[in-house]
Write the structure tokens for this entry.
Amino acid sequence: MGIKIITDSCSDLPQEILEKYNIGVVPLEIRFGNKTFLDGIDLNNKEFYSMMREHKELPKTASPSPERFITEFEKTEDNILVITISSGLSSTYNSALIAKEIYEKDNNNKKIHIVDSLSASVGEGVIVLKAAQLASNGMNIGELADCLRKYAKEGQVFFLLDTLENIVKGGRIGKVTAHIATLLSIKLIMKSDGNGIVDLAEKVRGSNRAFKRLVDIIGENTTNIEDKILAIAHANCYEKALKYKELIEERYQFKHIFISTIGATIGTYSGEGGILISFI
């Protein structure tokens, strides 16, 4: 019996990676007013950013129901490993645990492991990718789950906001603070605190300085770069992400680098123009 890797739509992995490793994706819900969409199914990233520009209020996000996970479980005869968005950011992890409990009552021959990524977007995505690679190399599901929990605690996630509009709307910072920061051209670099919660890392004055600082941060926060994967996710600003990738390749020799798009769950709070990086 093999291992089926399942994640949620917040992992923001490119379609080619999902298809290469046959990774299952359970969608979160995105709500604009009284309309509800399934992330990545009936609302793609391009449509999401377009709709967000058109609405004064931020969309709401909702975790998948346990039934959605169970539907995905039923698609395979393999053992299952689920990797979710941080339990500190969403109740998706809890939904997966409930689904596991319900499903295993009638399918006790199948092993299901649930791993909290302690991250989001490609911070979650790089852990999913590592899981798929290790599973394809023959690691058993118990060892794999333990290994991923270690990766989750060690993973590094940073992102640079281009605008403060969305985090003001979301109540993350006050309007006065945001107004002053905008007047002074202050850019915020955020990071994961290692426990699945996002916090402020640095304030940098000027877009160019902040952009270059995000490159410097990589070298200050990792070792053995040649053995690691780096993911770059962009909030509807592919050219910026491509430039960032070029700067990284000039400085560092990562084993693998890929670019993806920040999806609806994190894009709701980052706003357009943001860059998120993760390496593990």
User: Anything to note?
Assistant: Confidence is low (pLDDT under 50) at residues 174-181. Residues 32 and 48 are 10 Å apart (CA to CA). The two ends are 28 Å apart (CA to CA).
